[in-house]
């Protein structure tokens, strides 16, 4: 039987609750496919700050690097919101992404037929939405230098950041995006602001260059402001979207809200080699933490992405995905996706129902 | 009687058609309030490129600077899309904003009861939306230096831009935003990415400093990714939003699409002194140009903003706004906002109906 080592990073707020569910789901789905896991839980985010004073302890990063895949719950909370930058939970997340070199963030936004009413969009606009945002995750304005505070020529105080992309950075994310589009419906839309920004003109030039390797994928380009509109107007027009770090941050959140069920949406962050990082796209929701109210399905589906993209275990992944659909078909709903006529359950019970369906 | 000089910049595509309507509306509404106008039409955008080889001729900028207000139609088109940056219509627009020093871009997004069905959002989510985006327009990554192309330490090609804000830039846009919120419902939401970007931390610090002058306005802060979600989830939560140039570009377009009728939405760009720039938020729509299909109401409402914000002529502005509502109440609709049971009209006829209603 195969054996993989998984680093679990429960994090803050509802993180530990949803990670606990996903862990049990992994164990069961794995065992049915002859897969065993060694789990190692490590502190990260606000809980690491409280424990050892930094948001990403060295031990956590090195354990993550040595494992086959990393599953993260959620990080952050009011308690640490006023911390200085290097002592913010979010900084730990950025350090983790950088440390694992996971430059490709895959964020699906799918409207499940069972949950189409959860969207604020009209049914005919929302139903059938099934898109994937491929976001560059370790470059651009998030990491660009120079950055910081200073004074300008007039002696005025300033704050500044640098948006910068190099050839290898655009080329490798473009390749991931083209490969992703090829496995989906063969359509890739690259989003930029090439009518204003040099960094975007460069981005577009490299995406076009890489496109020569993928003649079977239909490439289009869209300005980011228009993309933000088109996601509202007609999200079904999109198959795969590729974009930079900051535009991807904004557009993938917009796309996920369009589905109406962000408690359902997983994500995968992948590098060229080494372990991938898998996490639900929702936050740590401190207001409902420890009340058994959280929706664990986004983390459960992140575990499925871990199996599929992180370990190449497609069969075990499919088991989990099917079990989630099954559980929804049976009418089980946590509060965030509840609608009349269904069965309201807590985090734990939802987890148990998924286990039954596997 | 009062007399104002107005620079008209018809621009490209449907620009000339909608400007022609707005001009006649201005003349009539003005005459009823004892106001006369001198209009001067100048070339700008693609049509200026074709005529004299630059997107913003010097004569156009100096005429605009000398006038009391500037009304722009729309610029751009496929024909000039592949032009080098300094020969793009968009570059002319950025030069115009910079030249007029119009740092504050006011973009209302209002769902009119008559047009609530045009939104892709569910009726209960869309109805009653009435928000204003105050976008910083002459700073940030649009204008920051250094910018361009080069090579990094590894000899790799790069493209880069600088996001930068100085104290005076944030302070003045914050003041416009607080004043705007004060005249509306007293709520201001400042949108940034202060959990990652130093430029945003600086932005937030200055907005908080300026807030001391406006104790009657309720200030909140939101990350840009969350704002992109909240606009879809519950746009009614917003009154006034203030944000930087690039986030404002994205969010104001998203907000306008949420109304479902971008053919209706005007904008105003204001400086500390000198003429303001007024324009519809829609583009030049080359595919329907010269077919008498364009919706002129966004430009007509931009003319109303010109009267109100540019010239302080509130009464004449109100006449135009009321005439537009009247025309909609009578059931007149251009194709973009048409729904069954209404009267489909072209650009010219819509203009004539507004004139009748004034
Ligand atoms: C928490 C924050 C630093 C992070 C980001 O901006 O990347 C988050 O918004 C995300 O999208 O994962
Ligand atoms: C045309 C383009 C340069 C412009 C911008 O990005 O500012 C447009 O999108 C706008 O919002 O007015």
TrEMBL record, chains A, B:
Quaternary context: Homodimer.
Descriptive protein name: 3-isopropylmalate dehydrogenase
**Keywords per UniProt:** Amino-acid biosynthesis, Branched-chain amino acid biosynthesis, Leucine biosynthesis, Magnesium, Manganese, Metal-binding, NAD, Oxidoreductase
Cofactor dependence is on: Mg(2+); Mn(2+)
Entry annotated with the keyword tRNA processing: no
Task: Give the family, as the similarity comment puts it.
Answer: Belongs to the isocitrate and isopropylmalate dehydrogenases family.
Q: What is its EC number?
A: 1.1.1.85
Which species does this protein come from?
Salix brachista
Give start and end of each Isopropylmalate dehydrogenase-like domain.
5-354
Provide the coiled-coil residue spans.
Answer: none
The GO annotation for biological process reads: L-leucine biosynthetic process
| Cofactor remark from the record | Binds 1 Mg(2+) or Mn(2+) ion per subunit.
Q: Care to name a GO molecular-function term for this sequence? A: 3-isopropylmalate dehydrogenase activity
Included stretch of the parent chain: 42 to 399 of 434
Domain of life, per lineage: Eukaryota
Question: Which catalytic reaction applies to this protein?
Answer: (2R,3S)-3-isopropylmalate + NAD(+) = 4-methyl-2-oxopentanoate + CO2 + NADH
């Amino acid at each position: 039987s195969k054996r993989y080592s998984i680093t679990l990073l429960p994090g803050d707020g509802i993180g530990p609750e949803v990670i606990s569910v996903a862990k049990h789901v992994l164990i069961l789905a794995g065992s049915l496919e002859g897969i065993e896991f060694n789990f190692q839980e490590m502190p990260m985010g606000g809980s690491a700050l409280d424990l050892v004073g930094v948001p990403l302890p060295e031990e956590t990063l090195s354990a993550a690097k040595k494992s086959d895949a990393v599953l993260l719950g959620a990080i952050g909370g009011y308690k640490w919101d006023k911390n200085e930058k290097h002592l913010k939970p979010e900084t730990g997340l950025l350090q983790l992404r950088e440390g694992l070199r996971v430059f490709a963030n895959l964020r699906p936004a799918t409207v499940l037929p069972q949950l189409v009413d959860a969207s604020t969009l009209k049914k005919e606009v929302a139903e059938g939405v099934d898109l994937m945002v491929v976001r560059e995750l370790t470059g651009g304005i998030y990491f660009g230098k120079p950055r910081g505070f200073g004074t300008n020529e007039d002696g005025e105080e300033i704050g500044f950041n640098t948006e910068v992309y190099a050839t290898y950075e655009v080329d490798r994310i473009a390749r991931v995006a083209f490969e992703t589009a090829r496995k989906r419906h063969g359509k890739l839309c690259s989003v930029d602001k090439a009518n204003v920004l040099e960094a975007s003109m460069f981005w577009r030039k490299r995406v076009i260059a890489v496109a020569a390797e993928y003649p079977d994928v239909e490439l289009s380009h869209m300005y980011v402001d228009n993309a933000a509109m088109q996601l509202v107007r007609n999200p079904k027009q999109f198959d795969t979207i590729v974009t930079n770090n900051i535009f991807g941050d904004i557009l993938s959140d917009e796309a996920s809200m369009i589905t109406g069920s962000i408690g359902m949406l997983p994500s995968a962050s992948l590098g060229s080699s080494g372990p991938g990082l898998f996490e639900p796209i929702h936050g740590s929701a401190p207001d409902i933490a420890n009340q058994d109210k959280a929706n664990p399905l986004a983390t459960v589906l992140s575990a499925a992405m871990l199996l599929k993209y992180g370990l190449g275990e497609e069969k075990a992944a499919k088991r989990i995905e099917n079990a989630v659909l099954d559980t929804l078909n049976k009418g089980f709903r946590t509060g965030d996706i509840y609608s009349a006529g269904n069965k309201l359950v807590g985090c734990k019970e939802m987890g148990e129902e998924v286990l039954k369906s596997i």
